[in-house]
Design goal:
Layout lengths: L1 H89 L6 H6 L2 H17 L2
Length: about 120
């Protein structure tokens, strides 16, 4: 009987040891999965932040482009007005003194330069 009792105790100890080992293994696997999922979540959050920032930057770029386009149209209009004034002035049409001074070639050159710079700023 003692022999059977020893065998039962030994078997019980062996089963208990295996159970503890399996629990540890399961716990470690669980921790590894949790770490993996946590890393994936952080990566996805980071990508989401990047995408959000890119979207915001894209929106800001669109606003800036529209602003440049508006400025270009304004400058083109001013340039057209000044060129028309020069044509009218050259054909001996009587103009107001303020209009004559605004058809200054330096001013036209300055507006052309500003227009070129605004066009260069467009992406």
């Amino acid at each position: 009987m003692e022999n059977k009792a020893s065998q039962l105790i030994a078997s019980s100890t062996k089963v208990r040891s295996q159970l503890i080992s399996e629990r540890k293994s399961h716990y470690e696997s669980q921790r590894e999965l949790e770490a993996k999922y946590t890393a994936e979540i952080q990566s996805l959050k980071s990508e989401k932040r990047k995408a959000t920032l890119a979207q915001k930057a894209s929106y800001a770029d669109k606003i800036q482009i529209l602003s440049f386009e508006t400025k270009i149209r304004e400058l083109e209009g001013k340039l057209d007005d000044l060129e028309l004034e020069q044509v009218l002035h050259g054909s001996n049409v009587v103009e107001e003194p303020a209009q004559i001074s605004s058809s200054d070639p330096k001013e036209i050159g300055s507006l052309r330069l500003e227009l070129e710079r605004a066009r260069d700023d467009l992406p």
